[in-house]
Amino acid sequence: MKSTDLARKDRDLKKSRKKQSVLERKRDKKDRTVGDFINDLVEMFFYDAEKIYNIESSEEIFMLLEDLKEDQPEKQWNNILRKAIKKTKIKQKEVALQQLQEMGDILPD
Fold first, then answer.
1. Are the beta carbons of 65 and 104 closer than 8 angstroms?
2. What pTM, to 2 d.p., does this model score?
3. Which of 57, 58, 65 has its CA nearest to residue 101?
4. What pLDDT score does 32 carry?
5. Distance between CA 5 and CA 58 in Å, rounded?
6. Which domain of life does the UniProt lineage start with (predicted)?
7. CB of 61 within 8 A of CB of 55?
8. For every one of its 109 residues, what pLDDT tens digit does the chain have, with 9 covering 90 and above?
9. Which of the residues 14, 39, 79, 101 could staple to 106 if both were Cys, CB 3.0 to 4.6 A apart?
10. Which value, to the nearest 10 degrees, does the dihedral of the CA atoms of residues 97, 59, 87, 35 take?
11. For the chain, what is the mean pLDDT?
12. What residues does each domain of the chain span?
């Protein structure tokens, strides 16, 4: 392997480590932003073009909804859920929203 290849791999490794540390710092923040909640929800969802499959069975999603209720004002809850569902681009959006609302005891508007 050439020294330029080794140097490139070394740079890529350092870049990925730095990115990972930045992501960990962001996650460690106590006050997450609305965008953080949306991105975290989307990352936890297991979905295809039709629907989200793991809403009712995921404890991680339940814990995130509990954090959402603690950290964000009530008027933001449905907006966050709707935007996370919209980001998945599934067809059964209303079913997913209803399941998330029931899971987190979040009442619709």
1. yes
2. 0.67
3. 65
4. 76
5. 42
6. Bacteria
7. yes
8. 678 888 888 888 888 887 887 677 666 655 678 888 899 999 999 999 999 999 888 888 988 888 888 888 889 899 999 999 999 999 999 999 999 988 877 655 4
9. 101
10. 110
11. 85
12. 1-30, 32-109
Please state, as a whole number, how many other Cβ atoms lie within 10 Å of the Cβ of residue 12. 10
**Tokens 């339940």 appear where?**
62
Spell 72-96 as b/e; 16+ CB within 10 A means b: beeeebbebbbbbbeebebeeeeeb
Assigned token pair, 102: 């029931």
**The two structure tokens encoding residue 43:** 């990352």
Q: Is 29 exposed, middle or buried (0-12, 13-18, 19+ CB in 10 A)?
A: exposed
Side-chain-facing half-sphere of 21: CA atoms under 13 Å:
6
Q: Which residues are within 8 A (CB) of 36 and not within 5 positions of it... i.e. 6 or more apart? A: 26, 29
